[in-house]
Write a structure and sequence with these properties.
Blueprint lengths: L1 E5 L4 H12 L3 E6 L12 E4 L8 H8 L3 E4 L13 H4 L1 H11 L6 E5 L2 H4 L19 H15 L6 E5 L2 E3 L6 H11 L1 E5 L5 E2 L1 E3 H13 L13 E3 L6 E2 H11 L6 E5 L1 H18 L7 H7 L3 E2 L4 H7 L11 H5 L19
Helix pairs in contact: 1-8, 2-4, 4-6, 7-9
């Protein structure tokens, strides 16, 4: 099978490309900067920019793919408007480019649980729940889903909504959690328990490949058909996640410190201004506070199990030691990330 992968140089993308090659597939990566791609030599690299569309039509036609897995996306930005150029507009450009081909390939869009919105404790988000994103990131991801629906009559497409993604190569969630463990303080936006679903990066890759091979596809109308949540099926307490990391590195569990929302927003605003001055976006921003104030971001995988044959194989804390082994120096946010950093 010939696969075209966007976001192939990211956290999930590198693991996905490796899996596809091991399975004997042909892989083409659509990248913005080939000089920094650092992909296996057997991967064909094509240049295109989703943010402005340059080179996209040519690259899509040249790839000749049977399947497209769309991972590319913006997960942090210096301004709320910074998510849209790739997550919303870039996905729309990709969908329209594929729709213009004589025989459009099947497209799997890696969206996010942030597009669905928060859940309630004890009641994980379901695909049939109306989407209620609470952040600019979530709204951008949902706009990408709507772009896929707009070409549903020409492009067979499937949407996956992962929660927080963890595993080897993670540069955001696990490093931030480890840094807070080392500092001995676990800031939480608001009071009460915080519950999260997770998915290991290799399980997400398995789900993406399964969706490329089988399962329902989305429709023009607003329905849940072709949309799959792929969480690990567990409501993880944030404090327990930190305690597991602490145990692994020989530290005491960090002390939980509730942070009032107003204080968190003010601190995030200051961090945003600093990030703009540096010209480098940070995960700690007001957009994340809008997500972190909710007590639960959980989902299951019942529909994916039924339609895709997907069952998670690596449920936290399994695989944690491997993921933390190559940790880079982290800069932690003072509140927990509530959306996945999948791309």
């Amino acid at each position: 099978m010939r696969y075209l992968v966007t976001g192939a140089t990211g956290f999930v993308g590198r693991r996905l490309v490796r899996r596809l090659l091991l399975d004997g597939h042909t892989v083409t990566a659509l990248v913005r900067d080939p000089a920094r791609a650092e992909l296996p030599p057997s991967v064909t690299v094509l240049t295109a920019d989703l943010a402005d569309g340059r080179g996209l039509l040519r690259a899509v036609a040249e790839a000749g793919a049977d399947r497209v897995i769309h991972l590319a996306g913006t997960v942090k930005a210096t301004r709320p408007a910074g998510y849209a150029p790739v997550n919303a507009d870039g996905t729309r450009r990709l969908c329209e480019a594929l729709a213009g081909l004589p025989a459009p390939p099947r497209l799997v869009y890696c969206s996010s649980l942030a597009a669905a919105g928060p859940s309630r404790p004890g009641r994980p988000r379901r695909e049939t729940d109306p989407p209620e994103p609470v952040s600019a990131y979530g709204r951008g991801k949902l706009a990408g889903e709507l772009a896929l629906r707009a070409v549903a009559d020409r492009v067979p497409g499937t949407v996956l909504r992962p929660p927080i993604v963890h595993g080897p190569g993670d540069t955001e969630f696990l490093p931030a959690l480890l840094a807070m463990v080392r500092r001995g303080v676990l800031p939480v936006c608001g009071t009460g328990p915080r519950l999260y679903s997770l998915i290991h990066v290799d399980d997400l890759c398995r789900a993406l490949v399964a969706a490329a091979e089988r399962g329902a596809t989305v429709e023009h109308r607003a329905s849940a058909r072709g949309v799959y949540h792929v969480g690990d099926g567990v409501e993880h307490h944030y404090q327990d996640l930190a305690a597991d990391v602490a145990a692994l590195v020989g530290r005491r569990p960090p002390r939980t410190v509730p942070v009032p929302r107003t204080v968190a927003m003010a601190t995030a605003w200051g961090a945003e201004l600093a990030a703009r001055a540096r010209g480098r976006p940070s995960m700690f921003a007001r957009d994340k506070i809008r997500e972190a104030r909710f007590p639960a971001w959980t989902c299951g995988h019942d529909r994916a199990a039924r339609d895709l044959g997907f069952v998670p194989e690596t449920v936290w804390p399994a695989g944690l030691a491997d993921a933390l082994r190559p940790t880079a120096p982290p800069v932690p946010p003072p509140v927990p990330p509530s959306a996945p950093t999948a791309v």
